Amino acid sequence: MSSELWYVVLVAAVVVERIAELVVSQRNVTWALSQRGAETGRGHYPLMVALHTGLLAACLVEVFATDRPFLPVLGVTMLALVLGAQALRWWCIRVLGRRWNTRVVVIPGRSLVATGPYRWLRHPNYLAVAIEGIALPLVHTAWVTALTFTVLNAVLLLGFRIPTEERALESAAA
What we know:
Helix content is 71%, strand content 3%. A two-stranded antiparallel sheet has the order 1-2. Helix 1 packs antiparallel against helix 2, helix 2 packs antiparallel against helix 5 and helix 3 packs antiparallel against helix 4. The longest helix has 32 residues. The protein is elongated and about 55 Å long. The model has no long low-confidence stretch (mean pLDDT 97).
């Protein structure tokens, strides 16, 4: 099987994983709202969805449109990072339990989670996203996609998402 076909399988597996995330997220949003949770940051959410969808599509488009080579040392290293990012993401989901979702929905009066990866990092899920956004394209040397996603993701996370989450968590704790 060609490296391109293996790469399609990898990206398809990530798509399936993302769909599973969305199922878990929707279930958790429904629960959080039933617990008096409040959603904030709706305005930037479609941009986040578009960026993440674009990442997955652009990985394949760049590899096939520009005939990117597969470099085994780079590809295997980046694959290990992709798998590590997935493990970190699901660790975050497991530790947050029903409080994890892809939106910004917080329940008033709940204390911050300080176990699992949250012992060391304030936003470990976003570290997983950043690693995946660089590593997934570079599995097959799609460096333009890696660079573009990284810059746009940084703008959305640092400019909108993290400040929105911080304000929501602060107001929910008050």
